[in-house]
Structure formats: structure tokens, C-alpha cells
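Researcher: I'm preparing a figure for a lab meeting and need a structural model of a single chain. I don't have an experimental structure, so a prediction will have to do for now. The sequence is pasted below. Please return the structure as C-alpha cells so I can convert it later.
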Amino acid sequence: MEDKELFKGLIQKAEALYTMGDFEFALVFYHGGHKLWPELQEFRLGIQKVQEAIDNSVGSPSSVKLENKGDLSFFHKADEVTKGWPKGLIHPLRREMRQQNKKTAKQLLGELYSDKEYLEKLLKDEDLVKGKMRAGERLQDLILNCFIYLDTRTEFWRQQKPIYARERDRKLMQQRWNKTRQNPPSDPTRFVLKSLEEIDAALTAGNAESSLKKAREVLKLIQCWSEEVVPNKKEVLGNLHSCIGNALIDLGEMDKALDSHQKDLDLARQCKLPEAKSRALDNVGRVYARIGKFPQAIDAWEEKIPLACGGLERTWLFHEIGRCYLELKRHTEARDYGVRSLAVADEIADEKWQRNACVLVAQSEMKLCNFKSSVAHFERALDRAKVLQDDPARDAIQKVT
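Model: Understood. Here is the structure written out cell by cell.
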């Protein structure tokens, strides 16, 4: 069987399990497919939607704080209803009392909702539920199993909704979208700053998908506004392209990330914004370095040098450029940038970057056969590693020396 047919079959299997409500097994197949074909978006989106369904169904215990206050009569009534019910079973009437919105369940179940109401009536007939089928199965168990199935279907369609919104929801969303485009918030600046903070917070928390979604939504919104509403519109758009690019880097989509950061760079050059240009060149260089295009990374980072602010940014920048030259076996340039990085690290007394710069210089000198200088820098790097109590770095340096 060809790979093309194999991955299609795997997707169909995962989708079937998902539709049946077997989310955990569906997740196994999506993860398996993603491992074999990481470039295919279908598996990554499948993992995302199944994980969302599981999270929505199970939830996080740490996110719920229970408090014993307020009107608890609801639960006392439920206790009265279920008095005498077999231990371990949830009485259907109590389950129904816990429903926050019967209207929602009716909408989700459609024609099956009338079956659910019929089952409720049957459960009220005590003589009936005590009866047995010909095979010996109790009617009570049969009715309860049907009830559980309908509740499972209700929850299943509730999980579906965030990813595959129904036609009505799409129309309502479009109406709200059009209204928002026509009527920007009363304080656009505050809205933009708050949105950027939320986007950055999501990415910092490791939720790249949420950060990316939010950034794209805000980008589309602001693209529809005039410069009268957002005077620094292009600067804001550049910021959003930068956020999108960073989220895509975390998701491993390097080509798309490079495109977003390049858009940020184009806007920065167009508007003559040195800080934005520095940020964009920084990110463009990162992407190129990550995908092994070291000459392009060097070009971006060397253009950034005059824009670098502060010692920490400069020592990092010199070090990364030197590393790229080392990868290209241009050892003299690697050493020179390593020396520049070390000089700045000494100026700001940053022990971590002193160690990193010393290792870069030592490796470059060793390739240039300047062994005395190489040993001296390795020894200094080892000393910095001990001060930082960085055991892995210390062990690695000791092996080299």
C-alpha cells in the first residue's frame, strides 16, 4: 500500500473513533500519524480537536474551586429524589436537575430528545423498571444504558461545537464580526495593548495555538480599521505579524514563521521604525538559523548589529553570529565574534554569557590549531560553569579539555 493510501486510512480510522466518542483511541491514532507524517496538517489539527474534546469533557480539577456557601436547596432536593436509589448509580432525575440548560440539550439531540423524555417517564414507573427481559436483563439497566448513551451524545456534540460551528453559529459570528468592524472599541489603543498582552501571555504559557489564533483574529480586525482609528496602524500590524511568527516557530512551521517575520520587517523598513526593524531582523535570523540556513542568518543578524540595544542583547548577538560562522567552518570569523561577545559579557559581568563566549572562542581556536589559547578559554569557561553550578556544562567542558 502506498504511503498516500496509508495515511488516508489512518485519518479515517481516527475520525471514526472520534465520531464514536472514543476520544482517547482517536488521539492515539492521530499521534501515530503525526509521528510518521509530521508535515501533514490533518494529523496536527486532529490532535488539537480531540484534545479539546477531552479537555472540555473531563476538564481540569485544579481550575475548579468549590465553596460551601449560597443556596444549597437544589442539592437537598436532589437528595430527596434519589433517596433509596442503589448506591453507585446516578438517578436520572437528579442528572436532569443538574442540567444547566435543557434547551441546549434539546437543540443538540434534535429528534432524540423526545426519546430522552420518554425514558424519563418510564423510569417513574417503579413496577416497570423492576421487570426483566426474556434474556434476564433488567429493564432498569436497559433504560439506564439508553439514558447514558443520550447523555454521551449530548456531551459529544457539545465538544464538536468549538471546532465545527453550526450554520446558525457561523451566521451569528459573522454578524458580530461585521458589527465590530463597523464599530471599533471606544478605546482602540487600550484594546490593542490588552490583546498583545494576552497573545504574549498565551505564548509564554506554552499555548502557541491559542496565541496564534488570537493574533490572527486581532490582525484581521485591525486590517479593517482606518488609520484615523489606529494612527500607528502599520506598527501594530507589524507587532501582530511578529507574534504570529513566534507562535508558528513554537509550532514548528518555519516557512510560515519566516513569512510573518519578513512582513514585520517590511513594515518596519517602510515606516522607518528602528526598534521594530531590530526585532524583525532578530526573528528572521532565528528562523534561518533553526533551519540551517546560516549565511542568511548571518546577513540578518549583522544588519541588526547597529540597532542592538544593551549589553545583553549585543553579547547574545555576537555569540549567535559566531556560532553560525563556526557551523560554516569559517573559524577565524567565529573566533572574532566570540571575542567580541566575551568583551561585552565582561563589561556587563554576565557569567552565563562569559561561559558561552569562552566556549565559542575555545572551539574556534582549537580548529585554528591555537591550542594554548583554546585551553585557556576552555579553563575559563569551566570556571564559569562551576560558579553557575551548571553540572552538564561543566562535565561537557571537562571532556573536551
